[in-house]
From TrEMBL, chains A, B:
<comment type="function">
    <text>Catalyzes the addition and repair of the essential 3'-terminal CCA sequence in tRNAs without using a nucleic acid template. Adds these three nucleotides in the order of C, C, and A to the tRNA nucleotide-73, using CTP and ATP as substrates and producing inorganic pyrophosphate. tRNA 3'-terminal CCA addition is required both for tRNA processing and repair. Also involved in tRNA surveillance by mediating tandem CCA addition to generate a CCACCA at the 3' terminus of unstable tRNAs. While stable tRNAs receive only 3'-terminal CCA, unstable tRNAs are marked with CCACCA and rapidly degraded.</text>
</comment>
<dbReference type="InterPro" id="IPR002934">
    <property type="entry name" value="Polymerase_NTP_transf_dom"/>
</dbReference>
<keyword id="KW-0692">RNA repair</keyword>
<comment type="subunit">
    <text>Homodimer.</text>
</comment>
<feature type="binding site">
    <location>
        <position position="57"/>
    </location>
    <ligand>
        <name>ATP</name>
    </ligand>
</feature>
<dbReference type="GO" id="GO:0042245">
    <property type="term" value="P:RNA repair"/>
</dbReference>
<feature type="binding site">
    <location>
        <position position="169"/>
    </location>
    <ligand>
        <name>CTP</name>
    </ligand>
</feature>
<feature type="binding site">
    <location>
        <position position="169"/>
    </location>
    <ligand>
        <name>ATP</name>
    </ligand>
</feature>
<keyword id="KW-0547">Nucleotide-binding</keyword>
<feature type="domain" description="tRNA nucleotidyltransferase substrate binding">
    <location>
        <begin position="155"/>
        <end position="264"/>
    </location>
</feature>
<dbReference type="Pfam" id="PF21133">
    <property type="entry name" value="CAA_C"/>
</dbReference>
<feature type="binding site">
    <location>
        <position position="54"/>
    </location>
    <ligand>
        <name>CTP</name>
    </ligand>
</feature>
<feature type="binding site">
    <location>
        <position position="160"/>
    </location>
    <ligand>
        <name>CTP</name>
    </ligand>
</feature>
<dbReference type="Pfam" id="PF09249">
    <property type="entry name" value="tRNA_NucTransf2"/>
</dbReference>
<dbReference type="InterPro" id="IPR015329">
    <property type="entry name" value="tRNA_NucTransf2"/>
</dbReference>
<dbReference type="InterPro" id="IPR048833">
    <property type="entry name" value="CAA_C"/>
</dbReference>
<feature type="binding site">
    <location>
        <position position="54"/>
    </location>
    <ligand>
        <name>ATP</name>
    </ligand>
</feature>
């Protein structure tokens, strides 16, 4: 336990902003709020500004430079006007900013060295009356501000850094992990980082919390935390079983063997093409990959689409007898769907079971269909006709290169991108992926919990 | 229908014994019966002789040279005495005969150019009181003799020849088809070969007959014919779903396209080793075979044991990722278990799913077991640990050559024979099997219903 405290002290030193950094952020936030209020006065509407997110709640880690300001408009305002007012204010406050799109368009930009999001929303009475998903955010900040004292905020920092270290921080659709809000609610629930770890090590899903004891819905997620500001919402809805299990694994690991490196892991060294070849030779597998230009959409669209496409093509490969040992996706300038196969070739023929012979009309149709073609059979096994017919694809590569690959379940932008052109890599061509994805391949070939 | 009748007339011509042949057989049977009665008089016991089987019932086809005589002893006689009396009579009647073993030992020998079985049994009151399976046989003959007139017997000949032609005649454990008794009961049921074919073409299993309406048991076989002499017995118990379906298929075929060749098919020409290689190349498969000296046991023991071993090893191959497209067994001097594989090689590693991470003690044990060995992982997928561990066998051949093959379910005599030595053939070594099993391989590579 002493060792645990020692590790925690070391982590605190690295993640807690000192008073200078804190003061500096407060100044910039105040100045931004003032500029925003000034911009509001030029509009024929009443609105106010609230700072939200971890920098508003004192749960940000040293080096974070994100300031989130929400401008709250009256709920009667139509959405189009809200959006135009929001962008007008955004561009006034952040003259060098650019527009991004979440639920509405908003302006993102730099100010005094900080990354600022300026987001319009509706000032609704309660989180259950929201008109847009972002309307909920100010309620979260309000709820936590009232409950997280400085000590708890310091515990939150530890948990967040732990989640970052193990790769489970963030409710974006690439990570599908723990949001800041969820992390804070969990620390609030258990009272300390240490207590939360001890509990998580023993969690037995489904794990359910309802801080305000007002939940009305059933959820099938492994972790259910009913939003204190909205009885119908599971704050952990995005969390995957993997990340749930990951937190359990590393909670046990950290308690057994406390160490700072879990909070600040080194990135793996990128693999060279030769090293990739070496791993494949050691594993004796047959890798194939599809590469195409990454669709130009935000990550929250890109990753779910890549994931869907990866599963869709993996299923299509498996159905054709090309057994997938493991698959992964990589995205940067290009996007790669990577399949490591146990079986990449199949015979010229495949077994195809027909109907039971006693189902006369159906059976006769099957028999006639295959009796005179170049199949082997039909013959009888058990009570059925069986035929050994020609396979459409005898290698995985030929399937991936064919038009038939588009019959797989693909994300819409992925399909578009692939239709514009893709290449299929296999065998020792796989090494070339190391140029762009050496680090990802290093992680792939040394998989950790 | 006219064409059907023409075909039937042609078949009759070939299978019906003429009066000379019939007379000759009767003479020999009478003379054998007399010799047997004489032999009985030398014994201190009362016994009688009955002729059984198709030659007794006039349902034998031209060229059959089997005469079966049963000597019936009083049921009080102990089994040992019955056996010694039976053999004594047998050797007296058939001086050149030799002993064989079914339920009891009995004598088999030649007499005047006929193959004679001389079998001792008990003269019980009814077939339900039998002390030995062979005691039932005289009751079958008695039942059918009273019901099969000459016209029906001629129909039986057609059905039997049809079954021989399609390979479904015989209740031995190699064929697992229709016994003579079963064939005769079915003709009795439907009244003619033609009516039986028409019905069989439309059978929908389970098909159940109970000629004496006295059945007491439930059976799960596709065809259930309650023995008219024994309410607890299904005469078709040995019939496989394959042979049931086969009769359906060829009944439809013969009615659609009547032809004599179905009754008298040509044996296929044996394949040469080169032809075997050619078939394999066309199919693109990976054949492997185990060959050993055929165990010296009767066919009714040999074939079930080979079948069990074939399934046992096929399962073991499949479990290790060596997908079996089709398998078959051949036996003569040597016995061969033949597996045509779709996949004969696997990577150096295999995926192995561990427990869910939340099952703490079990999960921790799994993690520790694999964390520091040469496996990849453990990592997390869904809620479980997964590891990619080294495979024990990366080729089917190496598995078959290993001691581990004996962990498969094997027939006891097959296991003994294999322990004395076996060879594993694969790839282009398979062609050598054509020397002994060219015809079997021809059937294998041109499979028919």
């Amino acid at each position: 336990m002493e060792r645990f405290e020692g590790v925690v002290a070391g982590v605190r030193e690295r993640v807690e902003p000192d008073s200078d950094e804190r003061e500096r952020l407060q100044q910039v936030a105040r100045s931004l709020a003032e500029r925003t209020e000034d911009a509001i006065t030029n509009l024929p509407v009443e609105a106010d500004v609230v700072q939200v997110g971890s920098t508003a709640r004192g749960t940000w880690t040293s080096g974070d430079r994100d300031i989130d300001l929400f401008v709250r408009f009256p709920p009667e305002l139509d959405r189009e006007t809200l959006e135009s007012y929001g962008l007008k204010i955004g561009h006034e406050v952040l003259p060098d900013g650019h527009e991004e799109f979440a639920e509405h368009p908003y302006v993102k930009g730099q100010f005094d060295g900080f990354d600022v999001d300026l987001v319009p929303c509706y000032r609704v009475e309660s989180a259950t009356n929201i008109q847009s998903a972002v309307d909920r955010t100010p309620f979260h900040t309000q709820y936590l501000e009232a409950r997280l004292d400085d000590d708890l905020a310091r515990e939150v920092l530890l948990f967040k850094q732990f989640l970052k270290g193990i790769g489970a921080y963030g409710s974006d659709l690439r990570t599908e992990g723990f949001s800041g809000y969820l992390s804070e609610l969990l620390v609030l629930e258990y009272g300390s980082f240490r207590a939360l770890l001890g509990a998580a090590a023993d969690w037995h899903p489904p794990v359910r919390f309802d801080p305000e004891d007002h939940g009305t819905e059933k959820f099938s997620d492994p972790l259910v935390v009913i939003d204190p500001t909205d009885p119908e919402r599971n704050v952990a809805a995005v969390l995957t079983p993997e990340n749930f299990a990951r937190v359990q694994h590393y909670a046990r690991d950290l308690l057994d063997n406390p160490r700072e490196s879990l909070f600040f892991p080194d990135s793996p060294n990128p693999l060279t093409p030769e090293a990739v070849d070496g791993r494949i030779a050691d594993r004796g597998t047959a890798p194939v990959a599809i590469r195409f230009d990454a669709p130009d959409v935000v990550e929250d669209q890109l990753y779910p689409q890549l994931q869907k496409s990866l599963s869709g093509i993996a299923d299509a490969l498996s159905r054709r007898g090309f057994d997938v040992l493991r698959a992964d996706l990589f995205a940067d300038e290009t996007a790669v769907l990577f399949f490591e196969l146990s079986v990449s070739e199949r015979p010229a023929i495949e077994r195809h079971d027909g109907p039971p012979v006693h189902v006369r009309a159906h059976a006769a149709g099957f028999y006639e269909k295959y009796a005179d073609d170049d199949s082997y059979g039909p013959f009888i096994e058990n009570d059925r006709y069986v035929v050994e017919r020609r396979r459409e694809f005898t290698t995985a590569t030929r399937f991936l290169e064919s038009e038939t690959v588009f019959d797989s379940a693909l994300g819409v932008h992925v399909e578009q991108a692939m239709r514009e052109g893709y290449e299929v890599l296999s065998g020792d061509e796989i090494g070339v992926l190391a140029a762009e994805f050496g680090r990802e391949l290093a992680r792939y070939f040394d998989p950790k919990p």
